Amino acid sequence: MLMFPPCRPSKLVRAFILGVLTALLLITAVQFVRIISEVITGTGNYTQKKAAESHLDRLQHEVDNLNKAVKNLPRFEGQENSDSSRLYHPSPSGQSVDPDEVFKRARHVHNVCLKREKQLAGLTNSTYAYERISIDKKRKHLFCPIYKVSSTFLRRVLYSLETYGELKNPYSIPIEKALKAKTDSLMGLLSLDERQANEFLSEANSFLIVREPLVRLLSGYMDKLFAPNPFYWNKTGTYIVSKYRSKPNHLETVCGHNVTFNEFARYIVDGELDPKAVDYRDPHFTPAYDQCKVCRLNYGMVGKMESFTTDMYTILNNLIINVTKDQLVEWKEDVVKDAIIDSVESPFLWRPKVRMCMSWHSSLRRVWRKLQSRAIIPLEEKFPFSEFQSERVTAQDFITTAHFTHLRADKSRLKRQKKEVLAMAYKTVDRSLLPKLLEVMEPDFTLFKYNIHPDFLFDNDFLVEVDKLPNIFDVRTL
């Protein structure tokens, strides 16, 4: 089992952690000064004064813990001497993206792997990883689907090609049809004929799509553990509650239905660093580089969710799949409606099992908050159904209400909301845990050229504004 070797922290990592410390210090100082000013001016009281003193003590404790974390962080080979050490800011939405970027990213991945191949082997069993990688021997395609990175969209694309012989609107294909369709796997090819497999790999157009690592983690949490999902509550939620919660009640232990984001973050860290926890990892939450074994397979193209339209145009046309940018833009209009339908229909199908763990009204409120976390519904929009109405509302009623709420929302406001919900979620993570979380996700940041210093963690003014918003990630309020 390969683990990150304990070495001295690099300058980049030290600077990063000090940045975290500075941000936290400034935010907490603002809150502290507010309370002190109330005491001095007479608008506060003795209780507030004691709270301020206690708050400062807690801050000092967090500072000490972060300083200890800096000393113990690992240094990764080749980190400072390669492009991987540079901070990279993805192109803003609407800004033109170099169509050749998918090839440049692939070359960057290859260069990083040359220097860190052993460290980036990952913990996932290669056989399992290769069984998930789809191949098309006739068209000579190889695609590695990464969970929570448009993998369903791409499976619909492949289903359309295989079933109809042409590319139709992927959103017109039911999700269950695409996911259940039988596809050839790389493992199947490798087990048949080594010569044939090597020949295919040398000729195939191979690709994967990646996503900002922290964004992907939050998406996985919201989809599998926060929103009603009895399967994952039982599979992963019960394990997390039993391991990380002090004195959980019987319902929490049996159901695993109210895992906090902080508990989830601890689960992610231990899954990568604790040998005893490796067996409890789940591919929906493991690093992308490990899922696709990017240092063992030489991928030719690497697309990004953040520049999806441009990247998919380049990738699909490179695969000799004729598609226009106008088609991709047209299909993009179906993204929101498809997301709402998927988020709503599944909980209604699981209703009997969901109600064994929580009220139906609370369940639907979580679905609403999930849509808010995806910036489909504004944070200011309160849940529209009473307890009485929740018992009688149909899935179609909920879908129609959510879609109408989205259509009348201020789209520029929703764009800002995407960053707000990220800041909101990661503020709930223990300050001493955050450096470890970023340590285990560092390979994805480096390999795929993402900024390891994101605004939603380090923009002080922005974080102060987020403090004023209601936190939608508090599962105890549902």
UniProtKB/TrEMBL annotation:
It is a single-pass type II membrane protein. It is found in: Golgi apparatus membrane. Belongs to the sulfotransferase 2 family. Its EC number is 2.8.2.-. One of its GO terms (biological process) is carbohydrate biosynthetic process. This is Carbohydrate sulfotransferase. Residues 77-99 are annotated as: Disordered. One of its GO terms (molecular function) is sulfotransferase activity. It holds the Pfam family Sulfotransfer_2. It comes from Elysia marginata. Keywords: Carbohydrate metabolism, Glycoprotein, Golgi apparatus, Membrane, Signal-anchor, Transferase, Transmembrane, Transmembrane helix. InterPro entries: Carb_sulfotrans_8-10, Sulfotransferase. The keyword Signal does not apply. One of its GO terms (cellular component) is Golgi membrane.
